[in-house]
Design brief:
With 429 residues, the chain is mostly helical. It has 18 helices and four strands.
Length: 429
């Protein structure tokens, strides 16, 4: 049986601490305490972490902004376009378990350096006018992003324990800013490059490479070694509440990656020009960044999170329907509402992992379960949107999928929002 949630005084009752912990628990490996840094070193380190985070989303939204051009120039079928938008999300689930193993072997700093260099390589491969290399580059970039997703928050908490709330906010906003920037600037960059699709896709490798070079000094003077936690967690995969948290994470992520992968093509099919469509997606994602910071601080003040989870799922889904069918003059309003709903869902899905866990070890394993299964589930969303477009010749029937995902997120969000602990025990090895 699961037990009623009773947070210890001074712990999860504080919104700032909760938000920090919600972002931190995805880093499964333990990290030893770093040596003290001067303010210049801390500033450079903090800037580097934020810039790394900003490079973990452009792969998704840059291809989405150019999807019609990719299909026309490379002769990519609708099914191929669906697989292209789905592939990096699948990689998020498949490659996340590698991150702790790599960090344990070579250290988080060196692993992140490899992530940035391989991310630059994968992104550049997408600009070679070759369909196999387009998919290989996308898969390589997706795997790198998966590893970065897992390791970055742990470094933020390790090196900025006294400024963790600030760094977590900057880190979260950088993720969304990277996605928004790629959505908004990819088509203007294509025009600036004389209509070169290849250059517009490959140019996003440059910031990843530059940030990798900026990160290089951190690997030369790595201050901490990764330690494996000598604890096993039992019963998690048999627990109903753990599955509700996992499905809440996966279903809201499916909605999010439908936005990343297909909202720009949807708006362009409705008659918006490419630059405007990219701007609408960019605005929606930037609103998500603000919601990621604000919503959890409101949600944790209540007795539980059931109602707000359902309201946000309804908001995100209704806004997607508005973007599909409402008059084009209202798309900016729907984009803002979608950003509020989707950003709040992302943040509360992460928050649920902390609130529903009895201790840090359970939280780490629940996070691994939610990310691995959740992202694999999330990959189905953009794939089905592409298949619907292929079979019907329109995005209109995607509304059925959006409603189903939103309803599933609401049902599991209601369950995940209950003030209970998952029934799992952590024991020393």
């Amino acid at each position: 049986m699961t037990e009623h949630f009773k947070p210890a005084p001074g712990k999860l009752g504080l919104a700032d601490e909760l938000l920090v912990d919600a972002e931190d628990i995805v880093a499964v490996p333990d990290v030893s305490a770093p040596a003290p840094l001067g303010w210049i070193g801390r500033t450079i380190l903090g800037l580097s972490l934020v810039l790394i985070a900003a490079n973990l989303r452009p792969v998704f939204s840059s291809a989405s902004a150019l999807l019609p051009e990719i299909r026309a120039e490379l002769g990519l079928s609708t099914l191929g376009a669906s697989l292209l938008t789905t592939l990096p999300v699948v990689c998020l689930g498949l490659f996340s378990p590698l991150a702790p193993k790599l960090a344990a072997r070579i250290g988080s700093e060196r692993t992140l350096l490899g992530v940035m260099l391989l991310l630059a390589l994968g992104t550049s491969l997408r600009g070679l006018s070759n369909i196999p290399l387009l998919f290989v580059g996308t898969a390589l970039a997706g795997g790198c992003i998966a590893v970065g997703n897992v390791l970055l928050p742990g470094l933020v908490k390790r090196d900025f324990a006294d400024r963790a709330a600030l760094m977590t906010g900057l880190y979260t906003m950088a993720l969304c800013a990277g996605a928004a920037g790629a959505a908004g600037f990819t088509l203007p960059l294509e025009a600036a490059f004389g209509g070169s699709l290849n250059a517009a896709l490959a140019v996003w490798a440059l910031p990843a490479l530059l940030v990798g070079l900026l990160w290089l000094p951190q690997t030369l003077g790595a201050r901490g070694n990764i330690r494996r936690a000598g604890v096993t967690v039992e019963g998690l995969w048999r627990d109903r509440l753990a599955w509700q948290v996992t499905l809440f994470m996966g279903l809201q992520s499916a909605l999010a990656y439908c936005v990343f992968g297909w909202l720009a093509p949807i708006l362009r099919e409705r008659g918006l020009d490419g630059v405007t469509a990219g701007g609408v997606v960019s605005a929606s994602v930037m609103v998500q960044a603000a919601a990621c910071i604000v919503v959890p601080q409101i949600a944790v003040r209540g007795r539980d999170q059931r109602v707000i989870n359902v309201v946000l799922a309804a908001c995100a889904t209704s806004a997607l329907l508005g973007l599909l069918f409402a008059p084009r003059s209202t798309v900016w309003v729907w984009a803002i509402l979608q950003g509020i709903g989707q950003g709040g869902l992302i943040a509360l899905a992460m928050t649920a992992i902390v609130l529903r866990s009895r201790d840090a070890h359970v939280a780490a394993h629940l996070s691994g379960m939610a990310q691995c299964v959740g992202y694999l589930l999330a990959a189905i969303g953009p794939l089905i949107v592409g298949l619907i477009r292929s079979f019907t010749g329109s995005f209109a029937w995607s509304a059925v999928l959006f409603v189903a995902l939103g309803l599933g997120a609401a049902i599991n969000g209601w369950g995940a929002g209950r003030a209970l602990y998952v029934d799992a025990k952590s024991t020393p090895k």
